[in-house]
Design a protein that fits this description.
The longest helix has 14 residues. The protein is α/β, with parallel strands linked by helices. The protein folds into 2 domains: 126 residues, Rossmann fold (3-Layer(aba) Sandwich), CATH 3.40.50; 177 residues, Rossmann fold, CATH 3.40.50.180. It has a 7-stranded parallel sheet, with helices on both faces. Strands 2-1-3-4-5 form a 5-stranded parallel sheet. The termini are far apart.
């Protein structure tokens, strides 16, 4: 029987409080095994375990070297434990790195377990299948989606997310339940080869019916839409389309937000989560200008605060919320 194993180095255990204890309480095998750079045979020593590697480093160069080796050789998702006071540099976000956790982060075990289910296309092109995951005590349990009426939604929620936003997004979509009057449209910055697997992961970890858009599909309430790899997602009053990307941000949140603002006006809601750069800022301002609701993840709670900070500069009237309260804020009438 396949078990979940977290292979953790001593640095990550030292800077992520209670990680080993919390994982042990959740029934996860915690393997402390690599003192040097990761080995391709690291997880294969335990053939009944499918797991996630949690890597850390005392400085950026050493962490970068470990991540480069891990993502090129391991078929498991990789989580990076950032050195204290280290910035979340773009080069730390390689293919196969599913989360960045700053030193001192509480609740790291839940994030490690959540990220272990993300299928990965590694730098070598290998695909890692989603693993069965013991659920942490007290963690929300996704349920089957309730019967939700189709047809045109009364409101649309558009979400922008990038580095550090995946775990926030999952929690938001678990708490913001499918409903008969709302559709969700997502712009999650992601490598092309990863998108189909990410859509499957969203369907398995949230209660939303997930639709991977390859061309044009009807816009229906109770559905979560994202564009196929390498394309942008755009909205109209009654449909959603995946179109060729036009910017360096793929998919482009500004483009999604602007089309949602134009097509749904006061019925639009938009949220900017953790990420690098400024994508989503212009679009969020347009949503607000047309009478929709604009929300940002509180920058202090983001692994990478650049996107919400940029959005707040462009749209200073946006509401702020920490991850645990995003669903509540977005759900208010």
């Amino acid at each position: 029987m396949t078990r979940l194993a977290a292979v953790v180095d001593d640095y990550a255990l030292a800077v992520l409080p209670g990680l080993e204890r919390d994982l042990a309480q959740a029934g996860v095998a915690v393997l402390r095994c690599f003192e040097r750079l990761p080995s391709p045979g690291m997880l294969r020593r335990w053939p009944d375990c499918r797991g996630v590697a949690v890597l850390g480093g005392r400085d950026i160069p050493s962490l970068r070297a470990r991540l480069e080796t891990a993502t090129a050789t391991l078929s498991a998702p990789v989580v990076a434990a950032l050195p204290r006071a280290a910035a979340s540099l773009p080069e730390l976000r390689g293919p196969g790195v599913v989360d960045l956790i700053p030193a001192g982060t509480r609740g790291a075990a839940e994030r490690v377990m959540l990220m272990s289910r993300v299928p990965i296309v590694s730098a070598c092109g290998r695909r890692a299948a989603p693993s069965a995951m013991p659920r942490a005590p007290g963690a929300p349990v996704p349920s089957a989606p309730p019967a939700v009426a189709g047809g045109r939604p009364e409101r649309v929620l558009a979400i922008a997310s990038s580095t550090g936003g995946v775990w926030v997004l999952s929690g938001l979509l678990q708490a913001y339940r499918p409903r008969h009057d709302t559709a969700v449209l997502l712009a999650q910055h992601m490598d092309t080869g990863f998108v189909a697997f990410f859509a499957d992961w969203l369907a398995s970890t949230t209660p939303w019916v997930t639709v991977l858009v390859k061309d044009v599909v009807p816009l229906e309430a109770g559905r979560l839409y994202l564009a196929s790899g390498g394309r942008d997602l755009v909205a109209a009053a009654d449909r959603v389309a995946a179109v060729p990307a036009l910017s360096r941000y793929v998919p482009c949140a500004d483009r999604l937000f602007q089309t949602v603002a134009a097509s749904h006006g006061r019925r639009a809601r938009a949220a900017v989560l953790s990420g690098m750069g400024a994508d989503g800022a212009e679009g969020l301002a347009e949503v607000a200008r047309r009478g929709g609701r604009s929300v940002c993840q509180a920058p202090g709670s983001a692994v990478v605060p650049s996107m919400p900070e940029s959005a707040l500069r462009r749209c200073p009237g946006a509401e702020l919320a920490v991850p645990e309260l995003l669903a509540e804020v977005l759900g208010r009438e």
